[in-house]
Design brief:
The protein contains five helices and no strands. By secondary structure, the protein is mainly alpha-helical. The protein has one domain. α2 runs antiparallel to α3 and α4 packs across α5.
Length: 213
């Protein structure tokens, strides 16, 4: 008899909702990124590496404030106003569990985001190119908030935040490829990208659900 907690039909339905959410969110995220990158005025005073790194640090501070600090506050406020005040008491609402998972996920993703953003700034030589840093920051923040709000609606709708991780990965691939080109030319640019997607393929294949006996 099928365990309701592992109903394959429900899983497929949720996965379908998640995939549709990812597709819609990715389209909107691309539009937002392009809109900022093309319509924003070039940033002044970005010719020096130090100025670009300082702007990137400021972007990271904004992301930490609106995505990480708000998650910490959400958990802290609920603990203050409920029996969850004692973390060892075992009292948890669904809202608290979602907020805790959002917080943990954001801690993990903000490391990837920060590394990608500083790398992007290093390869953005002027104020026009630095618009990409601002655009990437805005998309990441909006995606984190979409993940959070979507997760409170259903597990499937947390897929609305997928563009945040996707843009960090894309930027890291770009930075790594540029770095590889500096070291070994065209081959150096291609090898890291090929290796990364090979690892992704292995992970995708290796994490397929096993069929029940």
């Amino acid at each position: 008899m099928t365990n309701p907690a592992h109903d394959p039909f429900d899983f497929r339905r949720q996965r379908t909702v998640g995939i549709v959410g990812i597709a819609v969110a990715s389209t909107l995220a691309l539009g937002l990124w392009l809109g900022i990158d093309y319509l924003m005025s070039p940033l002044p005073g970005m010719d020096s590496l130090g100025a670009r790194m300082l702007l990137t640090l400021k972007c990271c501070c904004v992301a930490v404030l609106f995505c990480l600090v708000t998650g910490i506050e959400a958990v802290a406020h609920e603990r203050l106003m409920s029996p969850a005040f004692d973390p060892l008491a075992g009292f948890e609402t669904r809202r608290l569990r979602v907020n805790q998972r959002y917080l943990q996920n954001t801690v993990e993703q903000i490391i990837v985001f920060a590394a990608s953003l500083f790398g992007l700034a290093a390869y953005s030589p002027d104020g026009s190119a630095m618009r990409a840093v601002v655009a990437t920051t805005m998309v990441w923040i909006v995606a984190r908030l979409a993940f959070w709000l979507g997760y409170h609606r259903s597990a499937a709708l947390r897929g609305l935040g997928a563009p945040g991780m996707a843009i960090s990965m894309i930027v890291l691939l770009y930075v790594t490829s540029r770095f590889g080109r500096e070291i070994a030319g065209t081959a150096g640019a291609m090898v890291p990208v090929v290796v990364f997607f090979a690892v992704e393929a292995v992970l995708f294949w290796g994490t397929r659900p096993l069929e029940d006996d």
